[in-house]
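QA checklist item 7 of 12: single-chain prediction sanity check.
[x] sequence parsed
[x] length recorded as 337
[x] structure emitted
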Amino acid sequence: MSRKKAVVAALALGAVAALGLSACSGTSGTSPSQSAKSGKAGGFIQIIVNDPSNPYWLTEGDVAQKEAESLGYTASVAASKADVNTESTIIDTAIAKHAAGIILDPANAEGSIGNIKRAMAKNIPVFLVNAEIDQQGVALGQLVSNNAQGAALGAQQWIKAAGTKGNYAELFGLPSDNNAATRSNGYKTVISQYPDWKKVAQQTANWDRALGQQKMQSILQAHPDINAVIAGNDEMALGAIAAIKQAGKKLSADGISNGIVVGGFDGSPDAVDAIKAGDLAYTVLQPVAVFAKKAVQELDEYIRTGKKPAQEKQSFDCILITKDNVDKMTAPFTFSG
């Protein structure tokens, strides 16, 4: 064969080989997340919450998983326990599984950013729920409660129940969660309008009931004449109630009877029961069942069509729950009003 004919033959063989590789890569060589964007739902969705032992995060994970499975995906829920390294390991596992997407309640407003970027760099879309991060343009969506609005609702009801003067304590949530500061600032904005209220203590209890009880015990020892407590979430509020009862002190839900007024935030089933029992003055319902479901729906739409939500940050208004409307809580974190 002449040199010219040999070159022509080699080029022809190369073209055939290239066509073969192209045909193969169109299906079996494509990851689930890439194939899903061609218009098909399906694949694995990883859901990451903080701690399912807290009913709030349990509901968040359960609702998201149920919605994902109803849309044709397989899904599992994992817990970070607010630890960025644990979150990182879960996300690395999801990447190795070629997950179609991730629903994430971030462990840390700043520390989770790198984990999200790593998944997004692998073409795995990430939607955040409940807690925000300190940077926009990293995740595709951040769906959260309107914490400022909810805090104002709660503080206004707290004033209504506890009156316009006295000594009070605040139980503060997890410092690495932006929601803790947002709620605390919201409380301050309202309560500061009543100069006869004096904050005698503020303790960090990390959203935890047992720690809330422990911190409240210390507060009561230092300030036995305290009139009211405002808490960043229901678990800490319920811990405070346990400590108050243990100290042999009375509780008041309306400010009329002589006792300590306690207010919460979340709308948990135990808080609902405490309102009915007259132990908790109110709670502020976070619509976690609503935005957890919505986040999965937006993830599904992105997987199928590549369409991003119109806004990355989406805020859902909270609802004040008192003895007057508590019977409208028909399921965990679900208000039917």
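[x] summary fact logged: The chain has two domains: 32-144+288-315, 147-285.
[ ] second reviewer sign-off
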